[in-house]
Amino acid sequence: MKVDKKIKVMIVDDHSVVRSGLGAFLMAIDDLELVGEASSGEEAVQKASEVKPDVILMDLKMQGIVLPKFPLATSFAASIISSIGRVI
Q1: Is residue 38 a contact partner of residue 61, using CB atoms and an 8 Å limit?
Q2: 13-29, pLDDT tens digit by residue?
Q3: Of residues 34 and 45, more confidently modeled
Q4: Residue 80 contacts residue 58 (beta carbons within 8 Å)
Q5: Phi first, then psi: what are they for 41, rounded to 5°?
Q6: Could you tell me which residues are beta bridge partners of residue 9?
Q7: Structural contact between residues 55 and 81, judged by C-beta atoms closer than 8 angstroms
Q8: Could you tell me the residue ranges of all domains in the chain?
């Protein structure tokens, strides 16, 4: 099935092997597009404002993540999903 608009996904995790594995999984799904990766909270805020993802898969237990400040630091609306479920 051809999808007109892909869902833009960004991965935020401080472990490169996790980012790599999730990225490989996401690229195998036709209606998802991996638009960015970040290894820290600070990098995530910068990168998210550049690539404007629809969904952010984020490790909330890594250093530099202050969740209440994260959405306010970006200029777009995205859903943030972690291992504990949808956060925002």
Answers
A1: no
A2: 999 999 999 999 999 99
A3: 34
A4: yes
A5: -65, -40
A6: 34, 55
A7: yes
A8: 7-86
- Tell me what pLDDT residue 72 has: 46
The amino acid that residue 29 corresponds to is I
**Contacts within 8 Å (CB) and 24+ apart, 22-26:** 22/57
Give the CATH class of 7-86. alpha beta
Query: For residue 4, what pLDDT band results from cuts at 50, 70 and 90?
Result: confident
Contact predicate 35/55, CB 8 Å: no
* Whole-angstrom distance, CA of residue 64 vs CA of residue 6: 29
Residues 6+ apart with CB under 8 A from 65: 12, 41, 44, 58, 59
Task: State the pTM of this model.
Answer: 0.75
Contact 29, 1 (CB under 8 A): no
12 phi and psi angles, rounded to 5 deg: -125, 110
**Per-residue model confidence (pLDDT) at position 59:** 82
Under DSSP, is residue 38 helix (H, G, I), strand (E, B) or coil? strand
